[in-house]
Amino acid sequence: AQKVTQAQTEISVVEKEDVTLDCVYETRDTTYYLFWYKQPPSGELVFLIRRNSFDEQNEISGRYSWNFQKSTSSFNFTITASQVVDSAVYFCALSEAIGNQFYFGTGTSLTVIP
Amino acid sequence: DSGVTQTPKHLITATGQRVTLRCSPRSGDLSVYWYQQSLDQGLQFLIHYYNGEERAKGNILERFSAQQFPDLHSELNLSSLELGDSALYFCASSVAIAGDTGELFFGEGSRLTVL
């Protein structure tokens, strides 16, 4: 069964618009971790954030914010005032405490148009 | 710089050949993961090693094999290469303390082109 779903395959926004990338996960564990990674056109995978299942506080880092809601099994990522440099593929991932396995979503390709 | 080193960065070879990709994890990380990313595809999990032992296998072909050595570096061996094996191969490492999965730190990837 797919554990992480990123339903949005591609999104295009105009620069300075806000954009939200959706991530829905599935797990039976009570302890788990959620992640977001960015893959710019250059290809490397950059770690953005890690959240554990006991911490539902939303987080803000500059123009980036993350909304974790256990009730809906979602961990959404919002970019405020998007910039061209935000153009990338963004991956959401889940890791369960037991087994140390990671499950990645299929990614959302974000294009920010100048 | 993630601290994970992958070599080579680029590799061009012919069908039927064999190649070895190498990965040095971050200092102190015991877990090494290998992923394959084909053109415009997501990340396909291949295999996970923890402190020298194989922990989990994903969609890894029988033509592919891997190992993690006592110094914790890992190698991914790809043999009888086919055109469809052309992809970006990522190695990632994590601390992976029991019950607390650290984040994965990825290398820059090895881009394999099979002609």
How would you characterize the overall build of this protein?
- The complex is a heterodimer of chains A (about 110) and B (about 120).
- Chain A starts with a strand and ends with a strand.
- Chain A has no helices and 12 strands.
- Chain A is mostly beta strands and about 110 residues long.
- In chain A, the strands form 3 sheets. In chain A, strands 2, 5, 6, 10, 11 and 12 form a 6-stranded mixed beta sheet that branches.
- The radius of gyration of chain B is 13 Å and the shape is globular.
- Chain B is about 0% helix and about 50% strand.
- With about 120 residues, chain B is an all-beta fold.
- Chain B has strands at about 5, 10-15, 20-25, 30-35, 45-50, 55, 65-70, 75-80, 85-95, 105, 110-115.
- The relative contact order of chain B is 0.33.
- The interface between A and B is medium-sized, with 24 and 26 residues.
Write the layout of secondary structure elements.
The complex is a heterodimer of chains A (114) and B (115).
Chain A: E1 4-5, E2 10-14, E3 19-21, E4 24-25, E5 32-39, E6 46-52, E7 59-61, E8 64-69, E9 74-79, E10 88-96, E11 102-104, E12 108-113
Parallel strand pairs in A: 2-12
Antiparallel strand pairs in A: 1-4, 3-9, 5-6, 5-10, 7-8, 8-9, 10-11, 10-12
Chain B: E1 5-7, E2 10-13, E3 19-24, E4 31-37, E5 44-50, E6 53-57, E7 64-68, E8 74-78, E9 87-94, E10 105-106, E11 110-114
Parallel strand pairs in B: 2-11
Antiparallel strand pairs in B: 1-3, 3-8, 4-5, 4-9, 5-6, 7-8, 9-10, 9-11
